[in-house]
Amino acid sequence: MGVTRKTLSVGTLGLVSFRSKKERLRRAERSQHDAEASLLEEQAARMAAEARISAAEKRVKQASADAAHAAKRLAQSKGRSRKGRKGAIMGEVLSGVEPIVRGGVESARSAGTDAAKRGRKAGRRARKAAKRSLQRAKVAASSAASSAKESASGAIEHLTEGS
Description:
Layout: H1 2-11, H2 21-79, H3 84-162
Helix pairs in contact: 2-3
């Protein structure tokens, strides 16, 4: 029936619709399903990004605690006269390590915010696509219903005129 309908549509210069009501509905439902799948993927990506952010925040907290503990030990070692030289060396090591830890913390935070932004953007796109496909499906269904009513009323008129 599909080939016949399409041939008839071309032959009548569009008087007969190119796609049947069922085909339009199937296409609209498929696009809606695709938009919903995209939305689910976006939500999964957002949850994964949030998990990575929380893991990075835990690492930041642990690194800060380690740095505070090392600073406390350094202060204690400076207080002892015999180990003053070791404390100075430890202080130099800690002062060299601290920028590295801070840089890692900042990169983890920026990666988390970037992932969240990308997730929100993908979510907005998926919602818009779902909304558009739903609107198209509604329009297609209403136009198919109205054309079916018109053809039914035309058939009724044709039957009553023939009687």
